[in-house]
Write a structure and sequence with these properties.
globular; single chain; 22 strands; Anthranilate synthase
């Protein structure tokens, strides 16, 4: 592989120049000032792609699709050194747990999609430095591919087209949503679960002229997030994500981290009121209990694949603030056992506990019973899995999913015995608001 430093270009401007020209993944750390939002990546021209009906083929494909020229040079300064980028949907996690869904899948939406990218742009936001990485192809050497990429970035990028009006339809009206929350509380009272994540789906026909890249550009301006992402499969399907939540990260030494989000409070225009909202969230017994239950679940999930005694909770009940909401966040770390890799880690914890509930198996059964649609890509994971075995991933929340015919926007929250159905509906709508603003 070869790398080359290019003149600094803002990641959003580079995205504007490259979008719409075949499969592309933009891992978009758009949250200015967030310590976790220091690096962004754009992958284009994948050497291979994988459309998944279930998760099973992914580990073997990660090996067979690797380029022969698969070692990044030492002057490439980023954790992702080329490899797979894509998404695995929530529904792909059912069969490995022995579960099935009563809902047919969304039409034309696969269970997941990955591209093997050996042409990558990396952006260091703080240093304002941009690098390009390329592997050789049989018909093109790495240097020529780097030159061609630089040439594509040179002209002024054309503006994205406007977003046409979107006609959103609520598949679970408010009175039914609140009634289903009450049913979930009854399951909690009966001892089936301690909590479960309950969600709703809005749909809109995809109008002529809808450009997913335009939507993502507007979304990242409205709701910048440290784990934002845009995925264009090149087949009419796209994900536009403003996720604030890390799922799993793995470095080359085997260190693992997950950062579950459980607990939400709205932002306020007044600084004093905003600070009071954050403080109230941190002190709220219901929100702390909800967060602690999911932190314990993820400790257990990591314990299945991490070395004995290595799983720790270095951060508990931290408040992180985003454009629309404050969130209560904890961190769980561990060290992956020898002989295991990124796919083992991903599958052992999938789907993420913050969007299932506890205990996970029973919560997922209840979710399927009470929700009105499949989840599809929503509540799955967007991930990069490097050629060197490292990985980072997000939970697919705050995300619009576009198929050739339909747009999907989904949101929800964790339900406990203390949940108030009307408040849960309002929280769901707060999370959904950046996605359905073009209604």
């Amino acid at each position: 592989m070869q790398c080359r430093e290019l003149a600094w270009i803002d990641p959003g401007t580079a995205f504007q120049a490259l979008a719409g020209q075949g499969p592309l993944v933009f891992l978009d750390s758009a949250a200015t000032g967030d310590p976790r939002a220091q690096i962004s990546y754009i992958g284009i021209d994948p050497r291979a792609t994988l459309r998944l009906d279930n998760a099973t083929p992914l580990p073997a494909w990660l090996e067979t699709a690797k380029p022969e020229d698969n070692t990044a040079p030492p002057d490439w300064p980023f954790p992702f050194k080329g490899g797979a980028m894509g998404w695995l949907g929530y529904d792909a996690g059912l069969a490995p747990l022995g579960l099935s869904s009563r809902h047919p899948p969304f039409p034309t939406l696969p269970a997941g999609w990955f591209g093997m990218f050996d042409l990558v742009l990396g952006f260091d936001h703080a240093a304002r430095r941009c690098f390009a990485l390329a592997a050789a192809r049989p018909a093109d050497n790495a240097g020529a591919r780097l030159m061609a990429l630089a040439a594509r970035l040179a002209p002024p990028a054309a503006s994205f087209p406007p977003i046409p009006p979107l006609q959103w339809v609520e598949t679970l009206p408010r009175h039914i949503y609140e009634a289903q929350v009450e049913r979930l509380r009854a399951y909690i009272a009966a001892g089936d679960v301690y909590q479960a994540n309950f969600t709703a789906c809005f749909t809109a026909p995809r109008p002529p002229g809808f450009n997913p890249a335009s939507f993502h550009a507007a979304l990242r301006a409205r709701s910048p997030a440290p784990f934002a992402a845009f995925i264009d499969t090149g087949t009419g399907m796209a994900l536009c994500s403003a996720s604030p939540e890390r799922f799993l990260s793995l470095d080359t030494t085997g260190r693992v981290e997950t950062r579950p989000i459980k607990g939400t409070a709205p932002r306020a225009a007044s600084p004093a009121e905003d600070q009071a909202n954050a403080a109230a969230l941190r002190a709220n017994p219901k929100e702390r209990a909800e967060n602690l239950m999911i932190t314990d679940l993820l400790r257990n999930d990591l314990g299945q694949v991490c070395a004995t005694g290595s799983v720790q909770v270095p951060e508990l009940f931290a408040v992180e603030s985003y454009a629309q909401a404050h969130h209560l966040v904890s961190a769980v770390t561990g060290r992956l056992r020898a002989g295991l890799g990124a796919a083992d880690l991903l599958f052992s914890c999938f789907p993420g506990g913050s969007i299932t509930g506890a205990p996970k198996y029973r919560a997922m059964q209840i979710i399927d019973e009470l929700e009105e649609t499949p989840r599809g890509a929503y509540c799955g994971s967007i991930a990069w899995i490097g050629l060197d075995g490292a990985m980072d991933s997000s939970i697919v929340i705050r995300t619009l999913v576009a198929t050739p015919e339909t747009l999907y926007a989904q949101a929800g929250g964790g339900i406990t015995w203390d949940s108030v159905p009307s408040a849960e509906y309002e929280e769901m709508m707060l999370k959904l608001s950046p996605l359905i603003a073009h209604g």
